Amino acid sequence: MSELPPDLPRLLTLRTWLQLALADVEEAIAAAQQREALQQQATPPPPPDWVAQLGIGRDAHPIAVHVGGCGTAGQRARPISREQAVRALTEGIEACGLCRPDTELGIL
């Protein structure tokens, strides 16, 4: 560390300056954290790769499989894995005619 002044008045002045500088740094950190938090809130998460559209009712079963982000999946769509999508399509669940998940998965 550099040499500090030996006398009390200059040491006190230096301490005051350092406290003010630290306050400025802490204020800048808080502002940066707030900007990052707002940016993360503004960026929506990416859509899932595959979704199952559910029927109406309490025990709703899948009625169609969609590629993630398909606009026709509706409000009752739930994310599913690739394996679940393949299984659903091979078990007879309908493939969306617009996004064609069966083609994307190689099931024809």
- In total, how many beta strands? 4
Strand/helix succession: HEEEHEH
The domain tally reads: 2
The helix tally amounts to: 3
- Low-pLDDT regions: none
Can you summarize the main beta sheet? 4 strands, mixed
Shape annotation: rod-shaped
- Helix residue percentage: 40-55%
Spatial strand arrangement across the major sheet: 3-1-2-4
Structural class: alpha+beta
**Which whole number gives the mean pLDDT?**
93
Distance between the termini: 72 Å
User: How much of the residues is beta strand, in percent?
Assistant: 15-25%
Name the assembly state. Answer: single chain
Structure description:
- The chain has 2 domains: 1-43; 50-104, no CATH class.
- Strand 1 (50-54) and strand 2 (62-67) form a beta hairpin.
- The chain has helices spanning 8-42, 82-90, 101-104, and strands spanning 50-54, 62-67, 77-80, 94-95.
- The protein is built from 3 helices and 4 strands.
- It starts with 7 loop residues before the first helix and ends with a helix.
- With 108 residues, it is α+β, with helices and mostly antiparallel strands.
- The protein has a 4-stranded mixed β-sheet with strand order 3-1-2-4.
